[in-house]
Amino acid sequence: MTRRERLLATLQGKPVDRPAVSFYEIGGFAVDPGDPDTFNVYNDPSWRPLLQLAEDKTDVIRMAGPATRQLHSDLVARHFATETWSEGSARYERTIVRAGERSLTQTTRRDRDIHTVWVTEHLLKSVDDLKAYLTLPDEVWDSDADVTGILEVERALGDAGIVMVETADPICIAASLFSMADYTVIALTETALFHALLEKVARGLYRVVSQVAPQLPGRLWRIAGPEYATPPYLPVRLFEEYVVRYTGPIVETIERHGGFARIHCHGRVREALPRFVAMGASATDPIEPPPQGDVLLSDVRRDFGRDLALFGNIEVADIENLDPPEFERVATRALADGTAGEGRGFVLMPTSCPYGRHISERTLRNYETMVRLVERFGG
Length: 379
Hints:
Layout: H1 3-12, E1 20-21, H2 25-28, H3 48-57, E2 60-64, E3 67-70, H4 73-79, E4 80-87, E5 90-99, E6 102-111, E7 117-121, H5 127-133, E8 143-146, H6 148-157, E9 161-168, H7 170-175, H8 180-189, H9 191-215, E10 220-224, H10 236-256, E11 260-264, H11 273-279, E12 283-285, H12 297-304, E13 309-314, H13 316-321, H14 324-339, E14 346-350, H15 361-378
Parallel strand pairs: 1-14, 2-9, 9-10, 10-11, 11-12, 12-13, 13-14
Antiparallel strand pairs: 3-8, 4-5, 5-6, 6-7
């Protein structure tokens, strides 16, 4: 089978020659190790063997999102502004939102040797900030989507793998406007206001998904955000209110047009899994093992494997920190549990990826082990 055929068969619940293996963001993002930008961690020579391994040997799942064009750019400009600057080895960006009588600000930081963005100041800091944000015109979120770039990524990938269309869900956008502490308190105590926020941000998301899904039938999607409503952050009743109610329509639109909706949800997913199925999702990731998660992969496979293709179960911390013989035992167990009995399909995959500038020899060897194990499994 080609790598593309293997991944599609996995999603469809058809037989495969061997389990698929993905390095998630490594190979998932198209990066340029030759880019000399000092903030490009991938130009460190230690990254090159790992990036090449992902391209040559894994079942590539390339993440891509549609380009969007704002329909009311003048209105957006009246309410939103950004400014950027550098200090030492960090880059900063501040977003200013003019809402009602308030000027709301958010600040992010990116450090030169770490490929991640830290939110050092969240946009909404109080209930009054939220009320002001809700006065923004709904039209500022209206945009049209263009899938040309996704199709170009897919053509370039060929038989090496598949594209995965990326989208947040309403709770992902809404919760990230707050610090985690403020979010959990407001989501618990101000449910009417939080519903109003979800409805507001859902408008633009639903529009884009409804445009993209019929143009890209049969593709895999990743929906990020439901983890914000899992324990210990929120009780199950609010998962029903905040995820099933608002993420469900996104899943339904994708699946109705022949796509595969994959729910991305870190942490404790035991109580969420039946709700993924009830929403009609086709897959989930990353199924973190305890203690990060609260359910064993073998149990997920037994109880939900007929409904959901399963991705993951390898903690990136294990890839970076375990000695290779110990890591091989962990990966072997995940591979066995993920393929046991009958099920829709399993992809051996980490929960995330390293984000520092240097890749250690141990880390590289452990990624190589994942490839070797699936190839041996197939043999």
